[in-house]
Amino acid sequence: MLLGPALGVSALLFAIGVGGVLLRRNAIVIFMCVELMLNAVNLTFVALAQQIGPQGQVIVFFVMAVAAAEAAVGLAIILAVYRHKESVNLQDVNLLRG
Amino acid sequence: MREVVFWGFSGVALAAALLCVTRRSAVASALWLVLTLFSLAGLFVLLDAQFIAAIQVLVYAGAIMVLFLFVIMLLNLGRAGPSDMRGWLGRGVAALLGVGLAVELWVLVRIVRGGGFAAETAAYPLPPGELARVQQAEGAVGMLAEPLFRQYLVPFEITSVLLLAAIVGAVVLAKRKI
Question: Which class would CATH give B2-123?
Answer without folding.
Answer: mainly alpha
